[in-house]
Amino acid sequence: MHDRVAAQPQPFVVNRDQIPSLPDRLPSEGLERAFVAHPRLAETLRSEAAGLSWLSLCSGQRMESRRQNEPGLLLVLSGEAELIGTSGKLVERGDVITLPPNQEYGLRGVGPQGFEALHVSFRVEDLRRNDKTQRQTSLKDLMAENDRRLHAWLNTG
């Protein structure tokens, strides 16, 4: 007799256009696509300790200033934008922007091909709760692991 082997989950591709855009944005403010709005991605991202969303701006589009309660990162995937706020700094592909909690920031797409970034937010209370049951990881180790995953992802397509 042959034992049945449970099917292993296979990689599943989600095109960014399949991720619903957030409804509270005006068309002039670009697109923000929260990964948890897509059922397959939400299933994969079961942790409540982090949130992911895709930001997309055309050249000249402006994401109005915002302030969030949790710390975060913006990983610039393509294009260029002006970081609006205290610095007015130009950011481009490959840059990582740290977003401290309660710090106001905004973006304006300035490059001819627009601007795309991955926004990662860290829910501090959930992280503290999880620290009691999981091993602690230093920020340096976390950034190195995220860098490794980003490079692997960028080299797959």
Q: Could you walk me through the main structural features you see in this protein, from its secondary elements to its overall organization?
A:
The chain has 3 helices and 8 strands, in the order βαβββββββαα. The protein is an alpha+beta fold and 157 residues long. It has one domain (18-129): Jelly Rolls. Strands 1, 2, 3, 4, 5, 6, 7 and 8 form an 8-stranded antiparallel beta sheet that branches. Strand 4 (72-84) and strand 5 form a beta hairpin. The chain starts with 30 loop residues before the first strand and ends with a helix. Residues 130-135 have low confidence and may be disordered.
Q: How many whole angstroms does the radius of gyration measure?
A: 18 Å
Number of helices: 3
Helix-strand category? alpha+beta
**H/E topology pattern:** EHEEEEEEEHH
How would you characterize the largest beta sheet? 8 strands, antiparallel
Percent range for helical residues? 10-25%
Gross morphology is: globular
Mean residue pLDDT = 78
What is the third-level CATH name, the topology?
A: Jelly Rolls
- Termini distance? 42 Å
Query: Which ranges are low-confidence, i.e. pLDDT below 50, for 5 or more consecutive residues?
Result: 130-135
CATH homologous superfamily assignment: Jelly Rolls
Q: What's the CATH first level?
A: Mainly Beta
CATH architecture assignment name: Sandwich
Tally of individual domains: 1
SS elements, strand count: 8
Residue share in β-strands: 25-35%
